[in-house]
Amino acid sequence: MKKSILLLAAIAMVAFTSCKDKAADKVSEENVAAAAERDAEAGKFPVMTFDETEFDFGTIDQGTPQEHMFKFTNTGEADLVIVDAKSSCGCTVPEYPKTPIAPGATGEMLVKFNGSGKNQVSKTVTITANTEKGKETIKIKAFVNPKEGAAQGSPIQTQ
Q1: Is 53 helix (H, G, I), strand (E, B) or coil?
Q2: In what order do the strands lie in the sheet with 48-50?
Q3: 18-47: average pLDDT
Q4: E strand or H helix that includes residue 18
Q5: What's the rounded Cα separation, in Å, for the pair 69 and 55?
Q6: How many Cβ atoms are within 10 Å of 54's Cβ, its own excluded?
Q7: Please, which residues have CB within 8 angstroms of residue 76's CB and are 6 or more apart in sequence?
Q8: Quick one: pLDDT at residue 159?
């Protein structure tokens, strides 16, 4: 009984392995060239080069909306695709191009700040793109003068 099971297993193994194509037979010059081209393209990334990565609005009054246009150039070797741009708080809203930016082409990102907060304020915008790092950052800052009549100090009264 054991001999027949062993013989049947050996026959099944030979039958399953003898029908497979050899991998070496599938390699052709055309496949090798296509793989080499794909690998060469895989190493090419876009590079997002900003004219400036930080902008200072200076001194502004609280509640005064501000805007700044950040200009950048794709200095890489592939199309730049911006997937998302998020700010460090809801008072800052970035607007970014939705179409790919070709190598050598320029783009603009508008950053709107509603002027909230008081004293020195700094906000960061994180850009998710198909660059090698995957994330780029730009910053805005301002000194915000509080509105007249705004409470100064702590709202807690001590006696």
Answers
A1: coil
A2: 48-50, 66-74, 106-113, 92-95
A3: 66
A4: helix 2-18
A5: 9
A6: 13
A7: 44, 45, 46, 47, 48, 103, 131
A8: 53
